[in-house]
């Protein structure tokens, strides 16, 4: 399976669900990548990306797609994902 396959098969919403993460009605959720007390991770279902608005976050300033999300969550590199 290569990255393109993962991107095509895996919707961000499905991925979030598999991690037990449920965005609120505004498509926001508490960011799993930093200590987050108020939801600062905005999910964009149309593009299957999300973005964390906290400057304390390791992902801050970057748009996170499905692959990035798995990388941050599992702490693995793009190279390792390609070997899946
Ligand atoms: Zn964050």
Automatic annotation (TrEMBL):
Q: Does the keyword Zinc-finger apply?
A: yes
Q: Its GO biological process terms?
A: DNA replication, synthesis of primer
One MF term in the entry's GO annotations: DNA binding
Q: Which residues form the Zinc finger CHC2-type domain?
A: 27-80
List the keywords (alphabetical).
Answer: Metal-binding, Zinc, Zinc-finger
Instruction: Spell out the GO cellular component terms annotated for this protein, sorted alphabetically and separated by semicolons.
Output: cytoplasm
Q: Where is the signal peptide?
A: none
PANTHER family reported for this sequence:
DNA PRIMASE (PTHR30313)
Write the protein's name. Answer: DNA primase
What organism does the UniProt record list as the source?
Bacteroides reticulotermitis
């Amino acid at each position: 399976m290569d990255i393109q396959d993962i991107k095509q098969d895996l919707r961000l919403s499905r991925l979030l669900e598999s991690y037990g993460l449920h965005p609120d009605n505004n498509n926001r959720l508490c960011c799993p990548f930093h200590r987050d007390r108020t939801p600062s991770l905005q999910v964009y279902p149309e593009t299957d990306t999300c973005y964390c608005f906290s400057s304390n976050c390791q992902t801050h300033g970057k748009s996170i797609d499905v692959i990035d999300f798995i990388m941050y969550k599992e702490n693995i590199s793009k190279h390792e994902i390609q070997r899946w």
